[in-house]
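Bumping my old thread because nobody answered last time. Still need a sequence for this structure:
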């Protein structure tokens, strides 16, 4: 592999969740994020690795690079990633490299209030806060349960759900129902699809590019029923 090769310049973030009988471990490198929903409240299991963070900036500079416009060397918007070999050096330890693949690892206890974990890349977090994502998944799970019991098919049919206030809320509700009707998946996969449908723009011009980044999402449900 040589400078100029696609493999030399390509890279990706990584957010890995390991669940034991008692704890949730989260290893993160980059700006993907793991979020725990604990009794309706969001708890970040990882920290987004951005070049502007003091500890990240210090490492980047010590490795012989610089931060400009919140990007390493004015190019890459994250300070940790797998690959991206042009920002790595075999003369440095992995945790000392400008764009390091070395992860932060957290350990969080599982409690009776632990509901679910969202593991998603930055395209989701550009559009939603951690709390907004948890609220959305909770609503999506409830919508999936009640809507399917009502028989489904939103088009041309009034929903049996409780009345919602405001046009925006009604539009969001209808979009959820339409996603359920059109989904090829079942259960939490449909809720993940709702997240994509909610955040992917119908007009790139109107959104000014927001929602056009990569979007991946995994939902891990601690279903005790």
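Sorry it took so long. Here it is:
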């Amino acid at each position: 592999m040589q400078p100029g090769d696609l493999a030399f310049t390509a890279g990706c973030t990584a957010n890995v969740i390991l669940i034991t009988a008692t704890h949730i471990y989260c290893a993160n490198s980059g700006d993907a994020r793991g979020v725990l929903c604990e009794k309706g409240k969001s708890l970040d299991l990882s920290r987004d690795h951005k070049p502007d963070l003091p500890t990240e900036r210090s490492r980047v500079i010590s490795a012989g690079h610089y931060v400009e416009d919140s990007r390493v060397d004015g190019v890459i918007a994250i300070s940790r990633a797998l690959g991206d070999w042009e920002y790595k050096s075999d003369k440095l330890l992995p945790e000392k490299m400008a764009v390091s693949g070395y992860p932060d690892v957290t350990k969080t206890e599982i409690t009776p209030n632990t509901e679910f974990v969202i593991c998603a890349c930055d395209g989701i977090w550009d559009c939603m806060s951690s709390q907004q994502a948890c609220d959305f998944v909770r609503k999506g799970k409830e919508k999936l349960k009640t809507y399917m019991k009502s028989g489904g098919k939103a088009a041309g049919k009034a929903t049996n759900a409780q009345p919602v206030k405001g046009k925006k809320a009604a539009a969001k509700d209808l979009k959820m129902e339409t996603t359920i009707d059109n989904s090829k998946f079942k259960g939490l996969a449909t809720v993940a699809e709702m997240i994509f449908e909610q955040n992917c723009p119908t007009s790139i011009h109107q959104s000014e590019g927001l929602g056009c980044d990569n979007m991946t999402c995994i939902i891990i449900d601690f279903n005790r029923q």
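The mean pLDDT is 87. Let me know if any region looks off to you.
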